[in-house]
Amino acid sequence: MGRPGPRPRPRPGPRAEPGRPPRQRRTAPGRRPGAHERERGAATLRTIARHGGAWLPLIGLASLAGTASDLALPAVLGRAVDAIVAGAGSAGGARWMEFSAALIVLSVACDLVVAYASTVCVADTTAWLRRRLVRHLLAIGPRGGFETGDSVSRVTANAADAALAGPSLLSVVTGVLPPIGSLVLLALIDPWLAGAFLAGLTLVAVMLRAFARRTADVLIRYQRVQGRIAALLAESLSGVRTIAAAGTLERETGRVLEPLPRLREHGARTWRVLSRASAQAGIVGPLVQVAVLAAGGLALGYGRITAGDLFAASRYAAMGAGLGALTGVIGQLARARAGARRTGEVLDVAAPGYGAEAPPEGPGTLRFRAVSAREGEVTLLDSVDLTVPGGAAVAVVGRSGAGKSVLAALAARLREPDEGEVYLDGVPLWRLDQGALRAAISCAFERPVLVGERIVDAVGLGQDLVSVRAAARATHAHDFVSRLPLGYDTPLAEAPMSGGEYQRLGLARAWRAGRVLILDDATSSVDIVTEMQISRTLTEDHGRRTRLIVTHRPATAARADLVVWLEAGRVRAVGRHEVLWDDARYRAVFQ
Ligand SMILES: Nc1ncnc2c1ncn2[C@@H]1O[C@H](COP(=O)(O)OP(=O)(O)OP(=O)(O)O)[C@@H](O)[C@H]1O
After folding, report:
1. Could you report the predicted ipTM of this complex, rounded to two decimals?
2. Helix 465-474 vs helix 499-510: angle between axes, to the nearest 10 degrees?
3. pTM above 0.80, yes or no
């Protein structure tokens, strides 16, 4: 074994003890997020917002220019009114009117730029975020514990909402400028006007704060229930044949739609929050305007301001107190925040880190040193010390639930040990380069899922047809594939396959293993004769690769060089099958 190199830097997580990559926890779906989750959600929101890149400065500048022209317009119109009232002649009034027209054109142009740039920015960010999520979900695999439908809803709907982050944050910032600008400009016209306006503005600010908090809270609950329905639907669709066979269509429909009342409740709450904000806006807005106009009327009476000033003040009061626009952008920001929290929950789960090492020359010896695996409080494997000799065929047996699949997953680094270490030819698995690890160790499962367009893609995963055929011959899949009209080019969706045939293709896919081939009940659906043939092929493979074979069949255990007998997450014994067979409890494992 070479000198240990630097360990790949894992993503920060709650546990980063030296010696093994950290496991991360995530917010349990449905649980109300605490301050920590909200903080992480805010951090995700900022990361997503920053992705807007070049579009955000453009949106910001256009919004600022639009706001400036909106703020200048009442003052300019006021000057036009004063020019007309003073009878300064059509030329003075006309000049102010032209200026006003130019400001209106500028404002419309800015709105167009903001709308276009925001659309492109959101589309870009959505695509980027979806790519990140898909890659990350596939990288973390079952570690994340996200249900299929829920993951789909996070990648589709929630990512699109989260992508609103940049433009909606900017909209909020630029949205508060008109009230602030109005306040300053009113103060310039007359301090009393600003005083009346400020009193109303404080009320508006309190209402907006409550609106923002309530909306974000309701939206996250709504999205969670949506995700739950999606998860239940995906689960049902994957078992659609069973449902049809059992005649439980009605019951299943009820089960999938069971959260619907909660969705309706959250939808109704969203509507109530929005309608309350609109009603408050409907009352406070005109009140602020009336207060400013009353103060303005008095100021005009005392001769402190002109008629044009009063006109401008009325426009500023309307612009600054208009809650409608701000409730819209705050609602959008709340959607982005909820989406960011849901997508952040996925991105916060640490993907396994890989090292940069290739395994040293070796026969494919696997060593488990004090390996434990847990799920919550439950111990699945307890301090397993085990050496699987390089080149040997080793059967793993035990009663159902003994921990055989967990052991197989640890051997392939499909899960991380909670304690201890797994080594391949003396090197901890986490230190191996991802490509080298996958080239060295392959897995075949009881229920393989074949992915790809055609059979050759699903089995070969990029290998040429010659290698695919060789693997299919070795695993007794070649005959039935050859009988298909398009052979290896048959689209998977059009290839009628039995469970055993499917398993043989899964086995053929794993056959590429350079050093260790792990079979987790991978021939359980194959008929006895074919299984014996596969088993013989595996035995003939002697010395070339290590084979770890999880099995329930005594014949397979008998052909193995060594048997590992697991019981309740512990190694009960290791030895030859014929020796272990003397023990009645060992024999009982196969009954
Ligand atoms: N992700 C998980 N979360 C919770 N419990 C788990 C998880 N994976 C496995 N277990 C539990 O760990 C125990 C061992 O599971 P494992 O699949 O390794 O059993 P097994 O020996 O392969 O059984 P079988 O022969 O039935 O396939 C079982 O009790 C199982 O319920």
Report:
1. 0.94
2. 120
3. no
